[in-house]
Design goal:
By secondary structure, the protein is of the alpha/beta class. It folds into three domains: 3-67, Winged helix-like DNA-binding domain superfamily/Winged helix DNA-binding domain (Arc Repressor Mutant, subunit A, Orthogonal Bundle), CATH 1.10.10; 89-165 and 268-295, D-Maltodextrin-Binding Protein, domain 2, CATH 3.40.190; 167-267, Periplasmic binding protein-like II (D-Maltodextrin-Binding Protein, domain 2, 3-Layer(aba) Sandwich). The protein has helices spanning 3-15, 18-25, 29-43, 59-83, 99-104, 107-116, 129-138, 187-190, 203-215, 228-236, 280-295, and strands at residues 48-51, 54-57, 91-97, 120-126, 143-147, 160-174, 184-185, 195-197, 221-224, 242-245, 254-259, 264-272. The strands form three sheets. Strands 3, 4, 5, 6, 7, 10, 11 and 12 form an eight-stranded mixed β-sheet that branches. Helix 9 links the parallel strand 8 and strand 9. Helix 1 (3-15) packs across helix 2 (18-25) and helix 2 packs across helix 3. The longest helix has 25 residues, at 59-83.
Amino acid sequence: MDLRQLEMLIAVVDAGGYKKAGELLHVSHSAIHRQIRLLESEIDDRLFVRKGTSIQITETGQKVVVTARRIQQEIAGMLQQVSGAKQLATGHLYIGTGTSILTLFLPPIVQRFRKQYPGIEVRITTGPAHQILNDVQSGKLDLGVVYAPEDLLPGEAVPGYELLYQEEFVLVVGKRHPLAKKASIMLTEAVKFPFILYPKLSNVRRLFDRALQRLELSPQVVMEVENEEAMEKLIAIDIGIALISKRRAVNDKIRQIRIRDVQFHCDVGVIFSSCEYLSPPVAEFTRMCREAVRSGD
């Protein structure tokens, strides 16, 4: 087993096949296929199986890919240290986050980072927190900035985590909704109306579900929406009411209502693949996040 074989394995997974992996690595797909066969022979198990015209990675293959990505990360980190890449002249920073955090918190930080370190390629991906966690663990992302769970799903683990701040969530209704003139409300009264909620696996939804379970309440859920901008539009036309971040709930077509019996706060933090070593781009971006929180930007 050598590093080139692991690079080819990752390329096949990311590209979805041998031919596209060959184009990505500028080698023939037959050469990649031959190296994967040698790797399978050494491991004594299949890494891919064919399904029709496509290939599918096996459970063994998934384990090898996770390890291969970690090896690539460690080598990249070592090379950065040895070559003096702490100057942040070159490299990449792949960030995963949610749409709300991307809208409300990250833009000035990303802008500042890009201005100070133009040689670093910055790429941002949005998605649910559990997927970002998986992508950080597998090495697809360098770090995530997400709503942190108070509880974890089976198999989840946070290798490295740093709390940044707490986000408050409030009940939001359309300005013509029957509740719109109320300044505050009990959650038991709110659940009489249809709710628009985040998907079940999102950390904000899990926070809300725990509160409902404690109070033995069961709301009518008419929609599950990940994007808060879409939520705002649906609330404005009275499709339902929702819990969204207080800082975002400033649209003149919606109204905030304080919930008297429950307070909803969700931690926002940085997750990364290792507590022991942070690459210079990750360390610097995390520092900028801390600085933004302290300054209130």
